[in-house]
Amino acid sequence: MRILAALVLAISLLAPVRAQCDEIDIMNIELCKQVMARMFCKSPQDFNMVAKVREGLFLLSTFYANKETQFFCGIGGGYIRVQGREFRTMTHTIPYVFDMKSKCSVVNYSSPDCPNSSPIVVCAQKTLDEQSAQDFWNRPIPDLLDEDLKRALDDLNATKPEQPENVTPEPPKQ
Fold it and tell me: Which residue has the higher pLDDT, 101 or 132?
């Protein structure tokens, strides 16, 4: 019975860590797709995740050179490395920056074959608290001030005791 309880406790303690790893993996896979799309001047939807080879190394596939071709994409140490599974001589190493505050990776990469040269930005999914804070600060300042004023007036009206207006009592009916 104690072994079962210890096993359940161990699994429950590891579950949140696993969810966080999945969030980072999802962001890294999307980053690989975006970078490879820029390399080959394709859409990120043209790339499919085949397998996670190990931590930070993924196998993706796309239609390239008249056939379905697989590529390794490794992310870590500030670099993204892309190498063809069949075309091993085709290797690209691209630097990237990860911003901890915004949980976003930024890649400045352009390919001569592709006219799009804007930075590639991929962000991890935000928690509900982070999203609500971002939504709050992205609103115009006059809206924030109006909301604060309305809240203050509502609080003032809620604490003020109701006073009867100048009402003259009616004489009793006989």
Answer: 101
Task: Please state, in angstroms and rounded to a whole number, the distance separating the CA atoms of residues 58 and 41.
Answer: 20
Query: Kind and range of the H or E element at 59?
Result: strand 57-64
- Which position has the token pair 């009793």? 172
Cβ neighbours of 114 (radius 10 Å): 14
The whole-chain average pLDDT of the chain stands at 79
| Predicted structure pTM score | 0.61
The owner of tokens 């190394």 is: 57
Nearest of 70, 80, 68 to residue 32 by alpha carbon: 80
Burial class (CB in 10 A: 0-12, 13-18, 19+), 32: buried
Average pLDDT over residues 124-144: 71
